[in-house]
Amino acid sequence: MSETVYGPVTDWATDFDHGSPAYAANQHKIWEDLKNSGCPIAHTDRYGGTWLPLTHEMVHSIAYDTDHFSSEGPVVGQLKPSEVPDRIGAPIGPVPPISSDPPFHNEARRLLLPAFSPKMIDPWRDEVIEICNKLIDDMGDADHIDAALQYSQHIPVMVIARMLGLPVEDGDRFRGWVNLVLSGIGEERTEERMQKFMEFNEYLAYHVNDHKENPREDLISFLLNAEIFGEKLSLEHAVGTVILLLIAGIDTTWSGIGSSLWHLATNSVDRRRLVENPDMIPTAVEEFLRAYAPVTMARVVKEDMEFHGVQMKKEDWVLLPFPAANRDDKQFANAHEVVIDREENRHAAFGLGIHRCLGSNLARLEMNVAVEVFLQRFPDFSVDANEMVTWSTGQVRGPRTLPFVVNARA
Amino acid sequence: MRVHVDPSKCQGHNRCYALAPELFDVDDYGNAFERNDGVVPAGLEDKARLALANCPEFAISIEE
Fold first, then answer.
1. Across-strand partners of A312?
2. Residue A110: its chain B contacts at CB < 8 A?
3. Sequence-ordered list of residues with C-beta below 8 angstroms from that of B53, at least 6 positions apart, any chain
4. Torsion of CA A118, A123, A126, A131, to 10 degrees
5. Distance of alpha carbon B15 from the chain centroid
């Protein structure tokens, strides 16, 4: 095991830290500077050795190359997958199917696809509209609101909790666990962190047992009865998938909604266009997904190999920064401009290849409705100049506070 | 004009189905396929091109 590196970044090409606040705040500039200096793939010794490819072509080819890159560790951590105690290894991984490799991956994913297909997700629209309106009703007539704390962070939690069959009122606890798993990756394994992981596992064990005793029409009961290769899913598989659906469904969409609202708060021309032409919202949301894609995934190198002139070692981490691929000017015209009526938009916000985000239809529905309802109720809003907008760190990026001034309501 | 979805490339992003439901449909797994043998009715050519221009996996082709 290599020595753990902490502390401030000395050089972004050779010592980057994607878990640092500086990266979260300046990532677009960092990628541009790296590419302009002739470094399309950065490296760091942190996390035991990690690569950061920056072009759409590289990200695309790694996402497709499941022979050389494993999904066993979708989130970079201080421990390599093989160093994690009691871990379920490849091809299943701890949180299938996102952590699974072919051919197991295909079967584990196929189980879940129908529940998240467009025809199953579209009927949630009215409920999401209601959730969004209720959150705005709860703000009363305040002129100063926080669109992250009072709005965006709640929307995905309520839907995924209902789909899974977990208590909707536990939203704060879910968000705490999301932060534990996805932020703070650069932190040391303190006793406090371990304690929180234990609480998360106990919580899930309780609800899984409750579903065993009292089956109902929800995803947890479905998983407990589902079969793969002619046998029931192992309990580890079922619980791992519950963890995945809970974690992956929350702060990603919360980030996507938050970044969209942040853009509209800071770009009044775009905001007015969408208020006047709400039928443009779906196209604009795709552009927000491109320009502010929340999710970077990770892979693990299977064997020593060469990639675009660099020597990757077995068990190195490789980040897949879909947000950087989305700003590659070889793939997108005016890649650094946010063009809300962009017609050609093959963005990779939901990933590329076999791990395309399972919940993309749900995420799109929630983002579209959240933006639509917010603009209906608040046709004019701006960032409160006296407060700070804060951004998450780690592999999911989005605003965690959005202090807004409401200038007009409808 | 005819459109075609390459099933070996489609990963179920469902952009074509969202942008041009007249030309594309999806199965229970969210995989897309062309309707009506891919024949694009007159007047829907722009929608076909829009679907092609928004497929992240480059799975859609058009025969003019």
1. A305
2. 29
3. A343, A344, A345, A346
4. -70
5. 8
Q: Which pTM was predicted?
A: 0.95
Whether chain A has a CB inside 8 Å of the CB on B18: the answer is yes
CB pairs under 8 A between A and B: 54
Give the HSE-up count for residue A317: Cα atoms under 13 Å, Cβ half-sphere.
30
| ipTM for the complex shown | 0.97
B12 to chain A: closest CA residue: A356
**In the structure encoding, which two tokens stand for residue A359, read together?**
């919940």
Residue ranges of chain A with per-residue pLDDT less than 70: 1-6, 183-189
Quick: pLDDT tens for A274-305. 999 999 999 999 999 999 999 999 999 999 99
A252 to A50, A64, A74: CA distances (angstroms): 22, 22, 14
Chain B contact set for A353 (CB, 8 A): 11, 57
Q: Which residues contact A185 (CB under 8 A, 6 or more apart)?
A: A19, A47, A75, A76, A77, A78, A394, A395
Tell me how crowded residue A87 is: count the other CB atoms within 10 A of its CB: 14
